[in-house]
Amino acid sequence: MELLVFGKTGWGDELFYATLMTIAVSVTAMLIGFIFAVIFTPLKLSKYKSLNLIGNFYTTVIRGVPELLVIYLFFFGGSGAIMYVASIFGYYEYIEINAFVTGSMAIGIISGAYSTEVFRGSIQSIDKGQFEAAKVLGISKFAQFYKIILPQMLRLAIPNLSNVWQITLKDTSLISVTGLVEIMRQSYIAAGSTRDPLFFYSFAAVLYLLLTYVSMKLINKLEVKYSRGY
Amino acid sequence: MDFDLMITSFPKLLGATVVTLKLLSASLFFGLFLGLLFAILRLNKNIFINKFAYGYSYVFRGTPLLVQIFIIYFGLGQIEYLRSTFLWIILKEPYWCAIIAFTLNTGAYTSEILRSAFQTIKPGIIEAGKSLGISNKIIFYKIQIPIAIRQSLPAYGNEIILMMKGTSLASTVTLMDLTGVAKYIISTTFKPIEVFIVAGGIYLFMTFIIHNVVKYLEKKYSFQQ
User: Fold this and answer.
1) Interface check A84 vs B, CB under 8 A
2) Contacts with A192 (C-beta within 8 Å, 6 or more apart), sequence order
């Protein structure tokens, strides 16, 4: 237990900040994922075959390739890609991107592919009559989406998005390979310097369980809120 | 684009794919039995057995696979007692540690898949078996298991693909699987995009094969409704 005290002698405060880092990366990645989902869901549902192809390419590739490989691509290729873009604008200095940015981008793109599938599924399961009724009533496309489709969609999407959140949260452990100090990396450092890997990795497992448990409870509340009337 | 690198790295990556496939098939094989065992325990009426099986699947589904591998590979070696037993022969090898971790992980997911499949079997089918005087054992083996397998095929297909992606974590415990070799080539040549295309292509190809095999099996085992 003395290994976990806060301050200089224990690892309590380090692990506490590492947990905050894990939460920060997960939330950022989830939000980046939403941005990707908002872009790619319409492509997947579009009438045009070529747009469908782009949407399907994104979700198929990301969901079929290991997360670790995507992270390596971003870790080793990220700064190269930025430097290439910068060189077009005449900037030739070495640019290093922050591990947090690389990590949340990589996890965000992965989480986005899963969110896209969730959004697509929930939009498709809304009754066609709803779209037609909105059209007949002369409601604008914008209002149709925000006032009619979105509220119904969220009710269906939240249980599945909670799964995506769990996947994203667990995937952040893989960012530790890039050196970002989150739960896994901090446990690795602590295990290395105290020679007590069993304790620290088990403690990391407990922290992850705690995070998944608490987030499940919170999401269940959201679920109740959005299924009013059902 | 460095096409030469893509061509020269392809055989190396293909060789590493064998390691990935070995890890995948071993963990799926053991995981299926473990999953079936825990699914049966979950359906047991004894509350302790029931809770134990639930706890197992909750812990292994709620923590990242990386933590599980690290606990088994780095953590268990710390226990002095284990080092003196015959188990140490297995636990000192990263290959077996990875397989143990993957088996426990996929076992947890498989137990959930099978449990829900068992629960969706209509009670009428079991009652029909009973009224025909078939023994409980045969009802289980000849009626419940075949129906459960068919019910759980789509979800189990997803689990196979997830597990295939999960085997990439073996590279974190020094195993040279497809991702491990890809990382090695990337870090020596600094050409991440080319290597990603080749290695990702191999993974996608495997996903494609698994997806279609499962689809074929689903069709074969579906009876006319």
Assistant:
1) no
2) none
pLDDT in tens, B89-98: 888 889 999 9
**CB proximity B80 to A under 8 Å:** no
Give the pTM. 0.89
Average pLDDT, chain B: 90
Query: Considering the domain A2-226, what is its CATH architecture?
Result: Orthogonal Bundle (1.10)
Asked whether the beta carbons of residue B67 and residue A72 sit closer than 8 angstroms, the reply is: no
Domains of chain B are 3-221 (1.10.3720.10)
Q: What is the ipTM of this complex?
A: 0.87
Neighbour-count burial of A129, counting CB atoms closer than 10 A to its CB (0-12 exposed, 13-18 middle, 19+ buried): exposed
- B105 interface with A at CB cutoff 8 Å: no
> Greatest CA span in chain B, whole angstroms?
70
Structure-token match 């290093």, residue found: A96
Q: Rounded to an integer, what distance in angstroms lies between the CA atom of residue B149 and that of residue B155?
A: 10
Please list, in sequence order, all residues whose beta carbon lies within 8 angstroms of the beta carbon of residue B119, skipping any fewer than 6 positions away. B43
Question: Which residues does chain B have within 8 Å of residue A72's beta carbon, measured at their own beta carbons?
Answer: 179, 182-183, 186, 192, 196
* Cα–Cα distance for residue pair B16/B96, rounded to 1 Å: 17
- Interchain proximity B74–A202, CB inside 8 Å: no
Summarised one tens digit per residue, pLDDT across range A186-205 is 999 998 888 888 999 999 99
How confident is the model over B47-96, as pLDDT tens digits? 999 999 999 999 999 999 999 999 999 988 888 787 778 778 888 889 99
